[in-house]
Each structure stands twice: as structure tokens, then as C-alpha cells.
Amino acid sequence: MAKILTRELIYFWYYFDIQFRQIAGYWILGMILGSVISVFGKEKIHGLFAALQGKKLGVVGIIPASLIGIASPLCMYGTIPIAASFSEKGMEDDWLAAFMMSSILLNPQLLFYSAALGPAALLIRFAGCFVCGIVAGLCVRYLFKNKKFFTFSGFAELLNRDTAPNLFVRFLKNMGRNIKATGLYFLIGVILSALFQRHVPAEVMASLFGKENQGFGLLMAATIGVPLYMCGGGTIPLLLTWLSDGMSMGSATAFMITGPATKITNLGAVKIILGIKHFVFYCVFVIAFALLSGFVVDYVIRVV
């Protein structure tokens, strides 16, 4: 029994060490990038979004709104108060929808993490989140025309915690919060990926999510994104393992969209600002867009 346990621990450490060394650098650099943007660029990014309001761009404004959402370093609970303040100043709901949708799906830190998956996955993740924000804005503009889509009452803008007079101290404090917020989930993700590599044959992943079963694989990937996704950094090791074991890029795309959009903590906040009817529309929209994106990646673009 002791020999079996020792052998399993050796195998586990072998896979854990490989995964950790593959991804840890991206995680560390991603946190550095996220903290730099949060400390030195957050106000400029949000100021840029506010400046769009007076330019009368109409529907075209959805495009920069989606890009700025990706550039924003805030989490969901930081994004909502910012959006609430923009709404009070008269920002159109379609622009807010584009900004919030892309911000939920992606931020600079997670984008850098995703580089560990390879250039194709990185580009697909960015493009998918950007387009999702645009489509969300168009849906709000044309399907809910002349109707208020959001209810921001009760969401005041959060106090800025990056207020230390010394910029380096401010940066270090922000880094500490990033490590606290993502470190545990990152380790859990590496542990789970090591366990997957050791105990789940590659043939199983290929049969579930591979090219020979792409239709069902897309549906499965879009579905498991709901319960499995807790933190973006924590899912990167899992995705890296799944892709190497035969998961199609389309299935990975579907997972990368439904995961952050339907994360339990995000759903609670989204339900409050949308109300039940708009919340149901949001959930249907996310799953439909994820499936369509996965289909385009696997059958139209045909990314290997």
C-alpha cells in the first residue's frame, strides 16, 4: 500500500511540476500586467469610455465600448458600479451592454494567462469576447429598443483602493490583492490538471470533445463551463491539459465563453441589475453565442 501511494505521489508531482512550470510564468506576468494597468491605467481607460458619450457615434459606439470592456482590469463587482455611474450620466444601454459583456468575459490579466494556450487560442479568445460584446450591444439596441435594459439602483461606485501616495507601494498592494484573489484557484487548477493527466486517458477527452464528436463536444463544453468555472487563471491549466488530450478548439472556445459569463458569483450580480426576464435572455444569449462560436471555430475556420 505504501509503495502504491509513493508511486502515485511521484506521478502526481511529475505532472504537477510540468504543468506548474508551463503556466506559472504566464500567471506571474499576468498579475504584474493587471496590477500595472489597474494602478496606472484604470482611470484613463474608464475616462476614455466616458469621453465617447459626447461623440454621438450611435451604433458604432458599441465597437469601442466592447474593446474598452476588455481593457478594463476590474472584476464583475467592480464593473457594475462603474457602469452604474456611466448610466447615471446618460450612457446608452447598448454601449453599456457591450462594455459589460466583454468585461465579464475577459480582462488584460486573463488575456495574458491565455497566452499559455498558444497563439491560436489567444487570438480566438480575444476575438470571441470582442465580438460577443458587440453582439450583446446590438441585441440590446434593436431587441429592447426604447426599453430600459439595466436597473442599477443600489450600486454605488466603489472606493478606489489604489490610493497609497507612493506608486510602488500602491503597485505592491495591488499585486498582493491579485495573488490573494487568484493564487488558490491557480493552484487548484494545476492540481486538477495533474490529476486529469494521471487518471483520465487522453482517449476519453478526445472521444468527448474531439473532432469525431464535435457537435456533442460543443454542447458538453458549453454546459460544463457553468459549474466548473470559478477563476480564469484556474481554468488555464485545465484547458491546456484538455487541448493536449484532444479537445477541439471549438469546444475550448465554448467553454471560455460560458465559463466566465455564467460563473456563480457573476450570475448573482447580473440577475440583480437585469431582472428575471432580461436575466433569462442573458443566459440564453451566452449559451447560444458560445455554441455558435465553437461551431464557427471547428467547422468554418477549422482551427486544429
Topology:
Layout: H1 2-40, H2 42-52, H3 62-71, H4 76-88, H5 93-105, H6 108-113, H7 119-143, H8 167-199, H9 202-209, H10 214-228, H11 232-244, H12 249-261, H13 264-301
Helix pairs in contact: 1-8, 1-11, 2-3, 3-5, 3-7, 4-5, 5-7, 7-12, 7-13, 8-11, 10-12, 10-13, 11-12, 12-13
What keywords describe this structure?
304 residues, mainly alpha, 13 helices
Describe this structure as you would to a colleague:
The protein has one domain. The mean pLDDT is 82. By secondary structure, the chain is mainly alpha-helical. Helix 4 packs antiparallel against helix 5 (93-105) and helix 12 packs antiparallel against helix 13 (264-301). It contains 13 helices and no strands. The chain is globular and about 70 Å long.
Provide a brief overview of the structure.
The protein is an all-alpha fold and 304 residues long.
* General form: globular
Q: Helicity range of the residues?
A: over 70%
Q: Quickly give the structural class.
A: mainly alpha
How many DSSP helices? Answer: 13
Give Rg in angstroms.
Answer: 20 Å
- SSE run: HHHHHHHHHHHHH
Distance between the termini: 42 Å
Mean pLDDT comes to 82
Number of domains: 1
The strand count comes to 0
